């Protein structure tokens, strides 16, 4: 059975593990092997826990048979060129063996619904230019690039945006 719920601090390690599996899957041949091989779930979970203690972060996990298989992190947009009613998907990862089964779409939809309920008018996401799988996915969800670019760990990131419909009352 598949279930979606808000993430709790107890999910930090599994979320770190999923994100590392996702990095290795998505960034092989894009990021250096040494960088990918050095990823450590305990360290990433600890960093996540520390961050959440100090900062707001909305996060939803997908569970199958009670075990997390995907997650989405989202919050207010961190870009300097937006108002405070713009949301940003900060991370979305599905375990590689569960990719292509509708989990990402459902996680994305939950974040966008939450943005809409908060009265946000736009959602944004940054993605590595070479991450074709994710770019295809965002485009399928109706996002389009707006030409903005930035650097992440020496690699090029591009920005996608989508207008959000107001929530029904
Ligand atoms: C990007 C990601 C989160 C998408 O999640 P997912 O569970 O695989 O996506 P879904 O199964 O919900 O697919 C959603 C849509 O994309 C389509 N899709 C899925 N895989 C696809 C592929 N390889 N190529 C093209 N379309 C694809 C689906 O057919 C579906 O289309 P629809 O909206 O018309 O029904 C997932 O692939 C992933 O974790 N990738 C690795 C990590 C990553 O790159 N994260 C993003 C970092 S910015």
Explain what this protein looks like in three dimensions:
The chain is α+β, with helices and mostly antiparallel strands and 169 residues long. The protein has a single domain, classed as 3-Layer(aba) Sandwich (Aminopeptidase), CATH 3.40.630. The chain has 5 helices and 7 strands. A 7-stranded mixed sheet has the order 1-2-3-4-5-7-6. Helix 1 (12-27) packs across helix 3 (41-54). The longest helix has 16 residues, at 12-27. It is globular. The structure holds coenzyme A. The site of coenzyme A has 20 residues, from helix 1, strand 4, helix 4 and helix 5. Residues 22, 25-26, 92-94, 99-105, 127, 131, 133-134, 136-137, 140 line the site of coenzyme A.
Provide a short characterization of the protein structure.
By secondary structure, the chain is an alpha+beta fold. It has helices at about 10-25, 35, 40-55, 105-115, 130-140, and strands at about 1-5, 60-65, 65-75, 85-95, 120-130, 145-150, 155-165.
Bound molecules: coenzyme A
Measured distance between first and last alpha carbons: 30 Å
As a percent range, the share of helical residues equals: 25-40%
Shape: globular
Strand order of the largest sheet: 1-2-3-4-5-7-6
Number of beta-strand segments = 7
Query: What is the number of helices?
Result: 5
Helix/strand-derived class? alpha+beta
CATH topology group: Aminopeptidase
CATH class reads Alpha Beta
**Which superfamily, in CATH terms, is the homologous superfamily?**
Gcn5-related N-acetyltransferase (GNAT)
Biggest sheet details: 7 strands, mixed
Mean of residue pLDDT values? 97
User: Over the alpha carbons, how many angstroms does the gyration radius reach?
Assistant: 16 Å
Low-confidence parts? none
- The tally of domains stands at 1
């Amino acid at each position: 059975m598949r279930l979606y719920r808000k993430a709790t601090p107890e999910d930090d390690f599994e979320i770190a593990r999923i994100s590392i599996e996702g990095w290795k899957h998505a960034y092989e041949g894009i990021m250096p092997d040494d960088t990918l091989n050095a990823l450590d779930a305990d360290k990433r979970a600890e960093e996540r826990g520390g961050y959440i203690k100090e900062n707001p972060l909305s996060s939803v996990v997908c569970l199958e048979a009670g075990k997390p298989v995907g997650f989405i992190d989202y919050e207010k947009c961190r870009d300097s060129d937006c108002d405070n009613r713009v949301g940003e998907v900060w991370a979305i990862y599905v375990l590689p063996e569960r990719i292509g089964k509708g989990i990402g779409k459902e996680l994305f939809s939950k974040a966008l619904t939450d943005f809409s309920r908060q009265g946000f008018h736009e959602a944004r996401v940054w993605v590595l230019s070479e991450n074709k799988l994710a770019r295809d996915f965002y485009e399928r969800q109706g996002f389009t690039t707006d030409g903005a670019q930035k650097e992440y760990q020496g690699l090029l990131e591009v920005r996608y945006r989508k207008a959000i419909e107001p929530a029904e009352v």
